[in-house]
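Page 47, continued from p. 46.
Same chain as before, 598 aa.
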Amino acid sequence: MTRLLLPHHDGSEGYVSNPTPALGETVTVFVRVPAGARVSRVHLRWVHDGEPVFAPAVVDRRDGGGEWWRAELEVRNPVTRYRFLLRTAGGEVRWLTGCGLTGHDVPDATDFRLVAYAPGPAWARDAVVYQIFPDRFARSAAADSRPTPDWAVRCAWDEPVAAAGPLRATQLYGGDLDGVAEHLDHVADLGANTVYLTPFFPSRSNHRYDSASFDSVDPLLGGDAALVRLAEAVHARGMRLIGDLTTNHTGDAHPWFPGERDLYYFTADGGYESWMGVPSLPKLNWGGHELRRRFARIAQHWLTYPYALDGWRVDVANMTGRRGADDWSREAAVLLRRAVQKVRPDALLLAEHAHDATGDLDRNGWQGTMNYAGFTRPVWSWLRADELPFPDFLGVPGEVPHRDAAALVATMSAFSAQMSWRSWTSSWQILSSHDTPRIRSVVGDAARHEVAAGLLCTLPGTPMIFAGDELGLTGFNGEHSRTPMPWRRPETWDRRTLGAYRELIALHRTRPALRAGGLRWAHADGDTLAFLRETRDDAVLVVARRAAGEPLRLSGLPAAVSGENLYGGAEDLKVAADGCIEICGDGPTFQVWSVRNT
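Result:
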């Protein structure tokens, strides 16, 4: 059975009257029951002060696709959980939760959620993020006159990156913030509207995650004045600028260390805790008031004039405040959220989390996460090349596994089921970053790369592109992926891939269904994946193939449908007399159609 013939609910505007409710508000929720599902009764179950409460749903309307059942619930608690109980005419009982339709009881962790905490900024819901690693993006003319610090090895722009060994953190290519400003045309032409910079604070490494100060911009990047110039240039284009704040640790050259021992974890024998045992990265102790006060001030300082950053990505947010029996993670997230909102209510606060972030979201702190677990891993597993130049699966021992489309949907659903729709759609979806192999090295060729970029731009969430992915750059680990941008060698650019990114980002930004629509999985088996994104007024069908195969037949779409092809060059959709549409088996391909009643 096609998945479109199953009852469905998600947290999008088509199914929830107000996805960002206030505490105490009554919200209407809907269940879509396709024709033929034989559902005779629907009950809403929601949790009221910890106790489950049931209320009957009623049929609100009928359309060509079936029935829409309606129920109301009070947003009683800051996070109000709910699910649906469905009974069929044959006496079958099913739960409908975030993990889909089940014939057995499932934990409350998979319930849908309404969140009454203040939502993230409205602009972030339409963001397309472009990640820049400053040392490797672009050099301005001023970079030539800056002295080489004692920790660094100066490299020519086209010199190969040392992917391993002692040079990894010390190779200095001299990229700076004025260089970034000089190439904003490229970012804008791509269609991105938000620039995310990895750290710009002084440090003793090229990556700058070992901060030596939070009070100034690294002179190697042009200093404070260069950040002001960049922020003004970004904002003049109507774009946003996001910084990177390291809250779990500093560098050992930071003036706080080791003199202010209360700010760190020192041991009785004179040693100290550090990030993953790296001595140059001493771990901060969030148990005291003074560290919290300082980070609130730091977060606020760079969001205000003249820098006016539009938010922070928080490095190692999953470890911040956690050490042994101590767990100050929620306190840190809430404090930073309140500090940011006090000076910039429209600023974004997003957490890095390399595995399961669901327990840290929907708690009035982080507004989303870098969704490695719920997006990057399943996409890699489905699209990976037969032969890979690296053995590491984002920190998991062994190569990236070969998995089919059903496993991709199961993984994405497992993670999305344990967070609110709001947190999922506010999270950054990532194909690769400065910490990972490049997506091109994962998938192996331009055709599968296009499929990956298509999923990035059509599945729920905020697309984040690591600078250079759009040119087809390769990299087999995080360091190797930080290859300088080949501005002076345009003949090396993969123009097909660049064109695909531009078209897909434009499609994402112009179709309401791709920015705010719900998600219904239509088909997931082997080499083929299909899904619908829908708002009340817009709907698109996406079909992705990693390899050629049999034609795909889908049922469950409206009988009178206009299926204009929006991306991929296929023919328009046609509904056959039996109510099915047939899609050719060419592959690898990525196709998008408009799907609306005529």
